[in-house]
Fold this sequence. Notes:
The structure holds three protein chains of three kinds. Chain A is built from nine helices and no strands. Chain A is mainly alpha-helical.
Amino acid sequence: MTTAPAIRVALQVSRGFAPVIAIFLAIVIPVFVGVGVVSSITDGEASAWEIAATGAFKWFPFALAVLVTPAILPMYVTHGITRHQFVAGAMLTLGAFALAVAAFLNLGYAVEAAIHQAAGRPYELRSPHLFESWTEVPLVVAEYALLLAALLACGWLIGTLYYRLHWLWATLLIPAAMAPAAGAELLLQTSWTGSWTESMGWTRPSLAVALSVTTLLIGATVAVVYTLTRSVPIKLKAT
Amino acid sequence: MTLGIEVQDLTVRFGDVAALDALSLHFESGKVHGLLGRNGAGKSTLLAALAAYRRPTSGRVLVGGEDPFENPRLMPQICLIRETLDVYDTETCRSVLSLGALRPTWDAVYAEELVEKFEIPVNRRWVTKLSRGKKAALACVVGLASRAPLTIFDEAYLGMDAPSRAAFYDELLADYMRHPRTIVISTHLIEEFSGLFEQVAIIDSGRLVLQGETDEIRARGASVIEPAEVVDRVAGHAVVAERRLGPTKSATVYGDLGADFEENVRSAGLELGPVSLQDLFIHLTANRSVKP
Amino acid sequence: MFDERSPIYQQIAEQIKAQIVGGEIRPGDQVMSTNQYAEFYRINPATAAKGFHQLVEEGVLYKKRGIGMFVSPDAYDRLRSQRRERFFADVVDPMVAEAKLIGIDLADVVTRIKANEEDDGR
């Protein structure tokens, strides 16, 4: 092969997801624009985009990640890709996806802030974040990228558990599989978990510690996915 | 370049059931092989192990002398096509075909030709929305266009009607002559496909019953027909089946019949008939009750 | 097209021999390649090749490297004389046995044969 197989896998998987993502965006963006317009008539201060960032833009990608192993792995093995190559490619795809979403969210904030400014209204973010203002681009991107990457890794893990194990075991293991995502939220002290720990008086560790431990958690989750996938049998789907 | 297959004492267990039980066989490279076996004999499990879909519980699979499992050099050269094409529900036909390009040997132009030839409506359509016959045809297109040095069809054409199967047969034969490779076909349609097979392997209950050149195996079977008492005298060889109709008896024998077998039979006034590969298969795998 | 009576490659060889004796292919003619044969009769080319190989062994065909298979110059004569040798044992004797089995007088058979001869003469 002229290009590394993992990269080819990443490209193909991205192409595969592109239509679904396009539909998602086509639905979500108008909805939140609508919400923003409505809320500007009523309250006017809170960021609607922030809600989108902690809602739709988390769980939709999560759903896609759950599907990665059961829906896509068999097809790739059928076309001659090894499981190792697939895991590497999927990791690249999901990582790039997390970064892309984070950058997109940042852009969304910028647009929303501009709208608020033009309307002469103050602009407020309601939940705790790593960043003070959306203009701190590296922090915004770091926060959202890491949170989403953790969530994607957990989703990927859950899908893999269902593919590899009996559905009963997989279901019982869901809480354990979601722990890394919860841990990321705790460490970075963001969104609801963040509000809760903040109100409890707990301060998050230093930025460097928070970022690196979160990254380790994500790495560990992917390592588990790799261990589960590397010799998994490809079973015939019932028609 | 083609790949030969060597299977040594292969055992694959599901729980405490051995789908394959210390199976050993050898598929010579560059030939078209038929794999015959009853339902549940272990054909699909064997083919899954050859294609690295599954790891053996014990024993070895060697393709081109190497273990194919998670082998990045070998896996792109092995293409296993099963009836459902292992596709997700919302996969489009076009994306299935574009994934084919992941193989170095994939011929996209040939794939398009085949899609037209088999009249598969691939544009703007999900795979699951195809009829059963067209789904099978698409699967066969992927298998053919892959031009993989080891191409395996696991009853992939089951959903196709007879004319489509004939078209697939002819296309497979033609492309095999254009681009020689090792092809393994597992099938229940023995008589329909036996012309393709240079060699045939019969497995039963996870073990090899017999393997050899198709013509040789056919030549070892014969059916001896005539008055019952006379047949009993002559058919000293391994009798694998018997039928009676009034005073007439037909005994199917199998084995190294020997040069004078025919003479002995005829001189005893008996009729000697041939046995089709399918009948031989039925008789040789009949020593147990029918599996559900 | 092929039955299970004998190995397919043998049936192919017999078919080609019959075509030679029947004059459809003549000594010196090139025969179809194994691939063409395989495609036409819908069989594995190796089976066709085996049939050809048998004919080469028997001297009925010979191979010109890089070009193809050709009918040996003496193939027609040889095959014809082989069939003549076997004619009485393979054709006449069974006919006599059949006639006896169904109770036909051999004299009637001879009469019929003579009548055929006269028809041909005309």
